[in-house]
């Protein structure tokens, strides 16, 4: 499996994957809006053979500063439960950390995302329409203040999902 940065030639295949992986076109449309709005920061594809097997996107958040949101993650049905998503997420976290980002937020299954170090308690105290046990954060740097409060705001493209 090769994990690499997404290129413009991948856009049609990524869109097809997202439409196939989710019940509506909302995630595919979200990715298009994030790209168009300049919020796509770490966008990776997994290639197996010559086929797109998976995709992950980390996008710039408006608040808190120096934070990314992880969403969406998608894997071709025939490659699910083989570590493709985990490999994409780990590589994305590594690149985000190397680029100096402070933290990552994700809305998802706590049992799944805990394996990467995400923790719901790190997202507590932020005001967000996504607040609750499925909103988690991961600090990428040790110098992040312990006090967590204020507004948590994803890129404007996410407004269509709320």
Which tags fit this structure?
alpha/beta; 162 residues; 4 helices
Please describe what this structure looks like.
The protein has helices at 11-21, 26-36, 84-98, 110-113, and strands at residues 2-5, 40-48, 51-60, 67-75, 103-107, 126-127, 135-139, 150-151. It is an alpha/beta fold and 162 residues long. Strands 1-2-3-4-5-7 form a six-stranded mixed beta sheet. Strands 6-8 form a two-stranded parallel ribbon. It starts with a strand and ends in an 11-residue tail after the last strand.
Short summary:
This protein is of the alpha/beta class and 162 residues long. It is 25% helix and 28% strand. It has helices spanning 11-21, 26-36, 84-98, 110-113; strands spanning 2-5, 40-48, 51-60, 67-75, 103-107, 126-127, 135-139, 150-151.
Set down the secondary structure blueprint.
Elements: E1 2-5, H1 11-21, H2 26-36, E2 40-48, E3 51-60, E4 67-75, H3 84-98, E5 103-107, H4 110-113, E6 126-127, E7 135-139, E8 150-151
Parallel strand pairs: 4-5, 6-8
Antiparallel strand pairs: 1-2, 2-3, 3-4, 5-7
Helix pairs in contact: 1-2
Average pLDDT confidence is 93
Q: Number of helix segments?
A: 4
Order of helices and strands: EHHEEEHEHEEE
**Shape label:** globular
Give unreliable regions as ranges. none
């Amino acid at each position: 499996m090769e994990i690499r940065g997404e290129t413009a030639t991948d856009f049609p295949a990524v869109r097809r994957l997202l439409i196939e992986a989710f019940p509506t076109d909302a995630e595919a449309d979200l990715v298009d809006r994030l790209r168009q709005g300049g919020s796509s920061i770490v966008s990776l594809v997994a290639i197996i053979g010559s086929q797109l097997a998976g995709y992950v996107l980390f996008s710039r958040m408006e608040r808190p500063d120096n934070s990314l949101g992880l969403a969406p993650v998608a894997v071709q049905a025939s490659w699910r439960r083989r570590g493709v998503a985990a490999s994409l997420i780990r590589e994305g976290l590594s690149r985000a950390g190397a680029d100096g980002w402070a933290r990552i937020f994700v809305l998802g299954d706590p049992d799944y995302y805990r394996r990467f170090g995400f923790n719901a308690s790190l997202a507590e105290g932020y005001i967000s329409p996504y607040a609750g046990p499925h909103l988690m954060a991961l600090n990428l740097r040790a110098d992040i203040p312990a006090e967590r409060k204020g507004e948590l705001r994803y890129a404007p493209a996410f407004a269509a999902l709320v």
